[in-house]
Design a protein that fits this description.
The protein has 191 residues and is α+β, with helices and mostly antiparallel strands. 53% of the residues lie in helices and 18% in strands. The chain has a 6-stranded mixed β-sheet with strand order 1-2-3-4-5-6, covered by helices on one side.
Length: 191
């Protein structure tokens, strides 16, 4: 028999602080120094005629971790404690909980191989599968999506701007060369 249950054991909830929020990172836009570095990397990519070089990707990953990606360590440990609590009681079925501000769904199977999905809204962001290697990322949080959107838009705008400037610079140079050649020819013709 599979049932759906919301965690109601208040002593268990209080011990784990399941309903508390741990000061999750809130993405508030790109800091100026990060924006300038992204623009610099976009200009370098445009000059090399390559979009999003490895330097950019490495910088992007490190900055995303710092400013937008949540640290799921408390969520994971609380979820595993919750899972163990119900496994020890031989509970089977689905259990729903709020863990550190994320929604959690625990699927307790008869063969003692639980599954955990941690949600932000309707999106699963991390999952745990005891049979298939433990924790894995399964989606992006809203803050990560906003960060991705801002970085991509900024990079693309600066990349296009640099390419346009390079194109205009080449046209200007060609015009100057042709004017200089015609002046030289007319000068040499008059001598």
């Amino acid at each position: 028999m599979i049932t759906k249950n919301i965690i109601t054991d208040s002593s268990f909830k209080n011990n784990l602080n399941i309903n508390s929020v741990d000061g999750r990172k809130k993405y508030k836009g790109l800091p100026d120094s990060v924006a300038e570095k992204i623009k610099e990397l976009a200009r370098d990519g445009a000059k090399k005629n390559e979009y999003m070089l490895d330097d950019f990707r490495n910088y992007y990953k490190s900055v995303k971790l710092k400013y937008a990606s949540p640290n799921f360590s408390q969520v994971k440990s609380t979820a595993l404690s919750t899972m163990n609590y119900y496994m020890n009681r031989r509970y089977t079925g689905d259990i729903f909980a709020d863990i550190w501000g994320y929604g959690a769904k625990f699927t307790m199977n008869y063969d003692n191989t639980p599954l955990i999905d941690i949600y932000e809204g309707d999106t699963a962001v991390i999952s745990y599968d005891a049979k298939n290697g433990g924790w894995r990322r399964s989606g992006m949080t809203k803050d990560e999506k906003a960060f991705d959107r801002d970085v991509t838009n900024l990079y693309l705008a600066e990349y296009r701007k640099t390419k346009e400037e390079m194109k205009n610079s080449q046209i200007t140079t060609k015009t100057e060369i042709s004017i200089n050649i015609s002046k030289t020819q007319s000068f040499s013709m008059s001598v």
